[in-house]
Amino acid sequence: MTANLNQNRHNDPQWRNVIVQSTFPKNLGELSTLANNLWWCWNYEAMELFQEIDSKLWQKTQNPIAVLKGISADRLAELEKDQNFINKYNAVLKKYNDYMSVQPDAKTPRIAYFSMEYGLDDSLKIFSGGLGILAGDYLKEASDTNTNMVAVGFLYKYGYFKQTLSIDGEQLAIYNPQNQSELPISPVMDANGNRIMIQVGMPGRLMHAQVWLVKVGRIKLYLMDTDISENRDDDKNCTHALYGGNNENRLKQEMLLGIGGVRLLEAVGEKCELYHCNEGHAAFINLERLRKLIKHENYSFPKALDIVRGSSLYTTHTPVPAGHDSFHEDMMMTYLGQFPERLNLSWNEFMNLGRMYPDNKGEFFSMSNFAICTSCGVNGVSRLHGEVSKKMFKDLWPGYTVEESHIGYVTNGVHYGTWTSKAWQKLHKETFGEGFLSDMSNATLWNKIFDVPDEKIWDIKESQRERLIVYAKESLRKAWTEKFEDPKKIVRVHQTLNKSVLTIGFARRFATYKRAYLLFSNLERLSKIVNNPDSPVQFVFAGKAHPADKPGQDIIKEIVRISKLPEFLGKIIFLENYDMNLAKQLVQGVDIWMNTPTRPLEASGTSGMKAVMNGAMNFSVLDGWWCEGYREGAGWALPEKRTYQNQDLQNKLDSEMIYTTLENEIVPLFYNRGEDGIPHGWIQYMKKCIAEIAPEFTTKRMIDDYKDRFYSKLGDRNAMLTKDNCKVADELVAWKQKVSEVWDSIYVESVEIDKSNEPFKLGETYNGIVKVDLKGLSPEDINFEFVLSEQNENEERAIIRCQEFTFSKMDGNLAVYSISVVPVRSGIFNYGIRMYPTNKYLPYRQDFSYVRWI
Question: From CA 485, how far away is CA 503, in angstroms rounded?
């Protein structure tokens, strides 16, 4: 008998799936409800509740779903018997239920809000930076103000990248997939219990997207996700990464967001009256809306365009032309070649919708131009950015000057509950009263901050700064230990960072125009500032550069290099992976928030507003929001106007002003202490900052402005155009058609202005007459305008006065228009007369931009 020498007999493990779900006792049964609505992320009582369940897991994840997922049966049993916890739970649940029980006014128009990204919380990584944070704050405010709104976006598999730095400061971009089981999302089902799927046509195929729901307080946010088996690999990748891939993938993303987003709303039963396009990425919402009206309602293109335009708002966030997405005509033909026929347009007419200059065959299709062409409302995101946008898009309306543009603005704001620390919120509630949160734009309430004792203000500021320094030390220790940094440097930083030292923060996306390098123009002078034994200063930097932005990454690397020089070790630090949690630590902990963009490239900026909510002052170029926010005695500013056209010379001047302001104003004010050790002068600045700046830059003020300037007007216009089976829309389309048919043949027989060949005299009256053959139009269809202009300091023509003619009479087949002009200013001017169509249903002249100078 042969011995069996093989002593191992086995087969592979047969694993079977089993799902173990947390089951909560009856008296804690709604914990999951609280965790799955992002309401918790702007209510500190709710956050503290989840932190109490498992403080270590909360510290690690900052995610209530992860906390509940990781809770043990023993811990649940403990909580069930912990009356103190039960009381906190009941209080939070009551607050939540009371909040959710209030429903929006069904009589107000339903607004559909579209954005490529939303910065709601770090637990849901569907944002990269300022645009997303702004959109997230806006949804939270829409919820708080009970605005009748629904939102659409993407669920990204990887989101934006996680930033780590090598030991010498090289940025490394890491893309980690999100764990869907720990996200506050739920699949959206139809009436039969099947997943709702959206399809958008691609070349030779359909791209499919599943739909998820995120609850943002009272607001529903629907997210599309293409990483499903029905799609081929390149379509699966469409929603993998925010702003990932090439320009072709960007076009696919924007088709899905716009075209697919409108189809999504229809699929889930949402009926919206107004559409808000947050940046040009979502502009194709209007392409799909046009298609639907033409196909399903049998509208003509002009009628569909008037209705779509009359219910659409486009918000631009980009101050430079290169930042606006545009696509080559060949790519448009490949992906959207079927749309002109569906809109009853020729290919050239379709392309003209996205061109600045009609019939310019070499021009790319601009999403921003298309959005403006199909939207009645257009706005920038600060007063200055509104003016910049007028100049950027002025050629869309030849015959009108920049200052006549209808482009408006709503300055951005920040969500109070998200960004203001618990300590400040409690003080505000105690000082401003119970009704403060619902009346946050009331400056009278904020003025009560002057009644708060200085020592109380200073105690909060000191404790917030200490929290930041503790956080920074631990973050650097962990990051540097993982990189095997010299232990002596770790100890030195730990010993040098000081909770009592003037702390200045600089955190944002690292692009060259942000000019983070200005502070380092003169290292010798900077060293004296930070190492002054009597009045030291410490700087905290953070921020990501786009993975494709090598110059931005090089700035980060240089700052890290300088921060490790002996004279700057522990005086200048760079904290990696700038996210919402780090942002909160910074804006709540620093004394000064610094910003040095190249003028006028900062559209708005919001990080400085967040600092203001926490009693930190801004030291910034007068660009973006700070043009409106700056108050003397409540912060510091570099001038708005450029001194040099040469950017290198301007950089040198600005850096010198930074050093001088720090040395002569900021640092002495901070360290000038009273006998009680409190810097009373500094606190006066803080109080003025809170009282005069904070109420102007909340999202409460922002959403109120959108309602007053755009939503209410668009709602009225949409109701007017669609009332009585679109009677007004039909009349307006017919009128435009009538005018356009005869416009070129309208004959101006004569133009006469009294004594126009002589110098005009102040105070005298000069009469003018225009005689015109209107070719069958009514005199009310056409008007004339006297336009007076002069050259401004930039040698641009600026209009200083416009005065309309008045129809006087008919002289045979000629219409006679007259005017009386009285000069009120002396000088050398130019005047012109222009003819334009007029109709009471036009929202502004550029809506039907026919104009002829005569």
Answer: 24
Nearest to 278 by CA among 142, 392, 466: 142
Q: Which two tokens stand for residue 288?
A: 């799909």
**Please, are residues 657 and 644 in contact by the beta-carbon 8 Å criterion?**
no
- pLDDT tens digit string along 576-605? 999 999 999 999 999 999 999 887 888 899
DSSP state of 176: P
Parallel, antiparallel or unpaired: strands 502-507 and 312-315: unpaired
Provide the H-helix boundaries in 393-486: 416-419, 422-432, 443-446, 454-482
Q: How do residues 490-528 score in pLDDT, each as one tens digit?
A: 999 999 999 999 999 999 989 888 888 999 999 999 999
Residue 79 to residues 26, 54, 72, 82: CA-CA distances in angstroms? 12, 11, 11, 5
Average pLDDT of the chain to the nearest whole number: 94
Token output for 130: 């300022």
Quick check: 114 and 258 in contact, CB under 8 A?
A: yes
Confidence of residue 18 (pLDDT cuts 50, 70, 90): low
- Are residues 332 and 351 in contact, defined by beta-carbon separation less than 8 angstroms? yes
The answer to whether residue 20 scores a pLDDT higher than 60 is no
d(CA 76, CA 61): 19
Distance of CA 218 to the CA centre of its chain: 20
* CA-to-CA separations, 522 to 9, 517, 558, 654, 665, in angstroms, rounded: 74, 10, 14, 12, 19
pLDDT digits (tens, 9 = 90+) for 248-300: 999 999 999 999 999 999 999 999 999 999 999 999 999 999 999 999 999 99
Say how far apart CA 814 and CA 836 lie, in whole Å.
Answer: 17
Alpha carbon distances (Å) from 394 to 89, 294, 340, 400, 575: 56, 30, 26, 8, 42
What pLDDT is stored for residue 6 in this prediction?
62
Q: Tokens at residue 329, please? A: 């005509």
Of the candidates 92, 163, 96, 155, which has an alpha carbon nearest to the alpha carbon of residue 120?
155
Cβ(262)–Cβ(289) under 8 Å?
yes
Lowest-confidence region among 3-7, 101-105, 240-244, 344-348: 3-7
- Distance, in Å, from the CA atom of 764 to the CA atom of 824, rounded to the nearest integer, reads 9
What span, in angstroms and rounded, lies between the C-alpha atoms of 140 and 128? 18
If you count them, how many residues does the chain have? 854
Q: How far apart (Å, rounded) are the C-alpha atoms in residues 533 and 528?
A: 9
**Residue 89 near residue 252, CB atoms below 8 Å:** no
Beta bridge partners of 727: none
pTM, full prediction: 0.94
Backbone angles phi, psi at 400, to 5 degrees: -120, 150
Helix (H, G, I), strand (E, B) or coil at 412: coil
Q: Which residue has the tokens 């007076």?
A: 788
392 Cβ partners below 8 Å, 6+ apart?
319, 321
Given a contact cutoff of 8 angstroms between Cβ atoms, the answer to whether 830 and 789 are in contact is yes
Q: How many CB atoms are located within 10 Å of the residue 56 CB?
A: 10
* Confidence at residue 759, expressed as pLDDT on a 0 to 100 scale: 87
Bridge partner list, 797: 791
Beta-bridge partners for 59: none
Per 3-state DSSP, the chain is made up of helix, strand and coil in percentages (nearest 5) of 45, 20, 35
Query: What angle do the packed helices 712-742 and 301-309 form, to 10 degrees?
Result: 150
* Amino acid identity for residue 410 in this structure: V
Give helix then strand counts, H and E, for the chain: 32, 30
Q: Which residues of 572-594 are buried (b: 16+ CB within 10 A; e: fewer)?
A: bbbbbbbbbebbbbbbbbbbbbb
Residue 5: per-residue pLDDT: 60
606 residue type, one letter: T
Residue type, 741: E
Secondary structure in 3-state letters for 327-391: ECHHHHHHHHCCHHHHCCCCHHHHHHCCCCCCCCCCCCEEHHHHHHHCCCEEEECCHHHHHHHHH
Written as six digits, the tokens of 643 are 């001194």
